[in-house]
């Protein structure tokens, strides 16, 4: 039999460990916490009305993090955007 359990397990692991599924979300949550984003956004809730798609979300995360001089790299902006998407916007689901 060409397909055995270890091949199936290995391909499952690569899905689970892909950035959007694992590291990205917890890293995004950590950065979002560290950036103190809720100091403004607690009273200014994230809203799909202002940000209707993922590209715009990423642009706003980039804008705010630049404004705050957090020095986030592109992958950090992306991680926070995925975290906000999974938590508030749900564009991907
Ligand atoms: C000093 C206040 C302040 C802080 C801190 C701040 N923001 Fe913002 N943010 C704003 C303002 C003002 C807007 C403009 C849109 C609005 O009126 O909500 C905005 C808009 C946004 C939006 C789009 C809003 C929406 O309703 O969809 C996102 C996403 C966002 N910020 C992410 C972040 C992230 C991530 C951080 C932390 C790195 C952050 N912001 C920190 C003030 C802030």
TrEMBL record:
Tagged with keyword Signal: yes
Signal peptide: 1-22
Key words, A-Z: Signal
Domain of life: Bacteria
Protein name: Cytochrome c
Organism: Thiomicrorhabdus heinhorstiae
């Amino acid at each position: 039999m060409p397909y055995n359990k270890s091949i199936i397990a290995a391909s499952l692991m690569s899905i689970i460990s892909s950035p959007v599924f694992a590291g990205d979300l917890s890293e995004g949550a950590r950065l979002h916490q560290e950036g103190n984003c809720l100091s403004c956004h607690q009273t200014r809730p994230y809203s799909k009305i202002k940000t209707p798609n993922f590209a715009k979300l990423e642009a706003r995360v980039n804008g705010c993090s630049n404004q705050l001089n957090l020095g986030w790299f592109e992958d950090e902006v992306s991680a926070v955007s995925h975290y906000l998407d999974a938590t508030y916007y749900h564009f991907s689901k």
